[in-house]
Design brief:
Number of domains: 2
Distance between the termini: 60 Å
Oligomer: single chain
CATH architecture of the largest domain: Alpha Horseshoe
Radius of gyration: 25 Å
Helix content: 55-70%
Structural class: mainly alpha
CATH topology of the largest domain: Leucine-rich Repeat Variant
Length: 356
């Protein structure tokens, strides 16, 4: 903490110097290098927030990045009560997001889940949907799922039931960022939370199939447990017209990334569903997931499906050619398939695209 306080003092000097043009202290180019005028008020939280507010309105991209980063870096040295008070008084969504980010940074640095109580309260109770969405966005890139679990009371499933589309979009973006950027796809709790949120978004007053499909098609499922796999598989059993093709294709895509211990079960169910669901984008997604699950064992599986849909012969052909490359890493194999498809110019669509 002592080091943080020293850094705070040094950084205030730099913040003041960087923000001086915004306050009109050095508007003349000839004065741009003049020392900033400092007084004992310069380094208060309110002064930092004032500089950030002005920068967000009319500052350069570099200055915005600098001030945003500094507020988060200095948050552990700022009393939590000051940050909470500032957040409770703030009405500008852009500043709500920044103050939430500061509290989230404090939570991460000091292992203080309680620092998120104020942002989560704002995310669930503010009358302004833009403010609610901003409070959620401020948590992006942090271990927010774990913190919410420790706090109790509010989780992403609850937040996903918000009637405002902007709030639901923020929830999905947070979960995808946490999965890919914080845990690099390896955290079971985050992946299973994403699946639970997607399932919750399929129906109800705030149903959002598009966001549910986005979440399922992009989140990593490599670490999920058997129960989560069963929940995804259960979606294949319902009436075909109970969900749009884009959502059914996203479920299939999520199943394609499950752990190897679930591979045999999932392959069997996908083969059954290929014959049952005639939507082109769903069948393309199934072909891709079968290749991902079986890799070098995929060629005979693909051939067994050739007679089911003659319209997907070209899709099967390009997968077979990609498999003949011998590539053993999924992302490289997928890239090779896309390259071959583009070179062929046959008009085939990738999984998840809209069928004609």
């Amino acid at each position: 903490m002592v080091t943080a306080m020293r850094t705070l003092g040094l950084t205030c000097l730099l913040v003041a110097a960087q923000a001086a043009p915004l306050r009109g202290e050095a508007t003349d180019p000839a004065m741009s290098m003049a020392p900033a005028k400092l007084d004992k008020q310069t380094c208060t939280l309110s002064a930092q927030l004032a500089s950030l507010r002005q920068a967000l309105l009319r500052g350069s991209p570099a200055l915005k990045r600098f001030l945003r980063k500094q507020l988060r870096e200095l948050a552990p040295a700022i009393p939590e009560s000051e940050l909470r008070t500032a957040l409770s008084r703030e009405q500008d969504p852009a500043m709500i997001e920044e103050l939430t980010g500061a509290l989230a940074a404090r939570m991460a640095r000091l292992n203080e889940p309680s620092a998120l109580r104020a942002p989560l309260e704002r995310a669930t109770s503010d009358a302004n949907p833009a403010a609610r969405a901003a409070a959620i966005r401020g948590l992006r890139g942090t271990a927010s799922v774990e913190a919410m679990t420790k706090l109790g009371g509010v989780d992403y499933q609850r937040l996903m039931r918000d009637p405002a589309p902007a709030v639901r979009e923020a929830v999905v973006s947070n979960l995808l960022a946490e999965s890919s950027q914080v845990y690099f796809g390896h955290d079971r709790a985050v992946s299973e939370t994403a699946i639970a949120v997607a399932l919750a978004a399929r129906s109800g007053p705030a149903a959002d199939p598009a966001q549910a499909a986005r979440l399922l098609s992009e989140v990593s499922t490599e670490s999920v447990g058997h129960q989560a796999v069963e929940e995804l598989l259960s979606l294949l059993d319902g009436p075909i017209d109970a969900s749009p093709p884009v959502l059914r294709a996203a479920v299939v895509t999520a199943l394609g990334g499950v752990p190897s211990t679930e591979s045999a079960l999932v392959q069997k169910r996908l083969l059954e569903h290929y014959r049952r669901d005639s939507a082109k984008e769903v069948r393309r997604a199934i072909l891709e997931s079968l290749v991902r699950l079986a890799m070098t064992g995929a060629p005979p599986i693909l051939e067994s499906l050739r007679s089911v849909d003659s319209g997907l012969h070209a899709e099967i052909d390009v997968w077979q050619e990609a498999l003949r490359s011998g590539l053993q890493e999924w992302s490289l194999l997928q890239r090779e398939k896309q390259r071959l498809q583009s070179a062929a110019g046959d008009g085939s669509r990738s999984p998840g695209s809209t069928s004609p």
